[in-house]
Amino acid sequence: MSASTLASVPALILVVDDELPIRRFLRAALESQGYRLVEATSGQEGVSEAAMRSPALVLLDLGLPDIDGFDVVRRIREWSSMPIIVLSAREQEGDKIRALDAGADDYITKPFSMGELLARMRVALRRQRGEGTDEEGVVELGDLRIDFARRVVSQAGESIRLTPIEFRLLAALARHPGKVLTHEHLLREVWGPGHTSQHHYVRVYMAQLRHKLEPAPARPRYLLTEPGVGYRLRDPSL
Amino acid sequence: MVVGLCTVLAIPMHRAFDLSNLTMVYLLGVVVVAVLFGRGPSVLAALLAVLAFDFVFVPPRFTLQVSDAQYLVTFVVMLVVALLTGTLTARMREQLEESRRRERRTAALHRLSRELSGPADQDELLRAAVERIGEALRARVAVSRWEDARESSVVAGDAELLTEDAERASARRAFEDRQISGLEKRGGSGLLHLALEVGHHVHGVLSARPVEGPWDPERLQLLRVLTSQTALALERCRLAEESRAVRAQVETERARSALLSSVSHDLRTPLAAITGAASSLQDDRALPAGTRRDLVETIAGEAQRLNRLVENILEMTRLESSTLRVRRDWHSIEEVIGAALVRRERILGDRPVNVRMNRDLPLVSLDDVLFEQVVWNLVENAHKYSPAVASIDVSAEVEGSALILEVADRGPGFEPDERGHVFEKFYRGRQAAGTPGAGLGLAIVHSILVAHGGSIEIGDREGGGARVTARVPLIGTPPPIEPEPDAEPALRELP
Questions:
Q1: 8 Å CB contact of B334 and A150
Q2: CATH number of the domain that residue A80 is part of
Q3: Between chain B's N and C termini, which has fewer beta carbons within 10 Å?
């Protein structure tokens, strides 16, 4: 699918939220951005709309009146890999991890700005189309360039020396740019399935990576921390 | 035996002294017996003394016969005197003992009442009471509480006393009838149960069994007195607890109304601005573009302020509720600072923030979600109260066995007289007038640090500005990190 056909057929977004004001503002804002919208006010309705309309992306509120938002994620994941972005309230790090583990692609905390939501949606849609996730290819984020095939990382043309674990950690994040990956996910992918409880390994290697890649490690541009949840590699261009 | 001893003593004296003087030796013996053994033995000793005197010394010697009738008078007088002195001495001894007992009892009571005046907690009080009563009575003591006639539990002392069903039933009778009860009859040495009652309220049942000796009337009396004293102390404790609960409730009410008045103002102001701006946009479609933009910006800004306020109120509520758990894990403080700065980078805008810390800081055991809040609240305060171009300086270091996090700004600083208050909920410094906020930021920081076993202090910065120093104790040793087996760089030079 090329960019031009995408532009001509507006992407269909499914909004699952029982709050009318939220749906109303999402409709106004997303339609003005050229998306088409379909709305569902309950979990059941959300699952069946997702099946019937096969939207390009689902925006899902966790606090639904009938079934648990996590169950909605799980049921959709039984047959589809369509991007799901969870809309959640703050102070629920456990819920965020559960949603991600259930198969959600991302979450955004209420209240959010439209710019933030649109950026997350663009990341998720792009990932769905397979851009930037090619194992053989090259990912470019701002001035950072990651060549998976040749295991080479460079920044503004300068190559950067990484240890194998540092490279695997960066690669794991770069395969899903913009997506939050939980500590467990990173440990499994980088260290193997036996290490999933040793969160401090990720923190130590993340610190090493930041000191190699970030101009100001205590105010990172690329390697972002989601406290209590995990990490996200930000694409500064989005 | 004493009489025998007197006889032996008297034999050598027999030659030198008159017989009448020898009676004195026997009288002395009787007094000694009276002092040592009391009334009964002294009477016996008096009789034996007369017999021995007759047998050994009165001629004809070594018979009980009396040659001279005048000795009969001597016997009678000797007997009467011996009995009198013996009885008097024995009574003195009894009085002495009685006063000693009284003294002991008074001392036990005094000690008990002193110990019972201390504890504010009923369980602690009962533990002290059980120990004291056990000492004073030389008995094993237990206190049981009775929810109703069936449910009971031993709350202090020797739980083994009440393991048998029969004893529990006996204790229940004491609870229900409010009378002393026991399985053995009076004067035995079995387990006795007394209700700890004051007025109509029965606090529980005190059970005691002597370690040695029987329940003589005096011991029983002491048991009753000590029990009622314990009951009184319990009642005092209960009333104190009740009044504390009432006070706490009043305090809570006061805090709640303070919250309501503060929050309702802080909530209404942005709401008023939003409502006003939105209705202007709604009513008048012919507004100039600049005005429209101003109104929209007002709505966005005030909504953000409202959000921050609600966030803080929720956070404070969460911290104060008993459900808060500090989820400790090993974290890099650099990462926590970074998360706080990045998540709110929109709010900070172009504000320069200098972060200074050593590269080799150890991982620290803390709750990252809560601690990010600490960092952000401190940085936000510095951001709100200092000129927009002045940099905010954040530093972290390990000092002794604590992590020190410092946030310093070039704002007006804290007034000396408000330093004691800045960590109170809803307290807002005088500098804060005109700046939106609910006075919760530092209170939240304070609560989180206390939950981590840490502390916080505020001070002046050299050259002007405020400096806030948070201190978190380093707990435990960070887990080891295995070095990377193959630390060869993954990089091949680019062609």
A1: no
A2: 3.40.50.2300
A3: C
Which residues span the domain enclosing A52?
3-129
Q: What is the pLDDT of residues B7-24, one digit of tens each?
A: 666 666 666 667 777 777
Q: What is the mean pLDDT of residues A164-171?
A: 92
Residue A163 lies in a domain: yes
Q: What is the ipTM of this complex?
A: 0.83
Q: Residue B284 carries which side chain, given as an amino acid letter?
A: D
Choose the closest CB to B491 out of A162, A211, A217.
A162
Number of structural domains chain A divides into: 2
The 8-class DSSP code of residue B484 comes to P
Q: If pLDDT is split at 50, 70 and 90, which confidence band does B371 have? A: very high
* Cα Rg, chain A, nearest whole Å: 18
Return the DSSP state at B83: H
Q: Is B319 helix (H, G, I), strand (E, B) or coil?
A: helix
Contact status of B368 with chain A (Cβ, < 8 Å) = yes
Report phi then psi at A107, rounded to 5. Answer: -140, 160
The answer on A113 and A8 residing in a single domain is yes
**pLDDT for res B494:** 41
Same-domain status, A114 and A155: no
Residue of A nearest to B311 (CA): A90
Instruction: Tell me the pLDDT tens digit for each residue of A86-108.
Output: 988 755 778 888 889 899 999 88
**pTM > 0.90: yes or no:** no
Whichever domain contains A149, its CATH number is 1.10.10.10
> Count of residues for chain B?
495
- pLDDT tens per residue across span B255-291: 677 667 766 777 787 888 888 888 888 887 778 888 8
Residue A238, in any domain of the structure: no
**Chain B touched by A91 (CB under 8 Å):** yes
For helices B441-451 and B289-320, the axis angle rounded to 10 degrees is 30
Across the interface, whether the CB atoms of B369 and A228 are under 8 A apart is answered yes
The mean pLDDT value for B471-477 works out to: 91
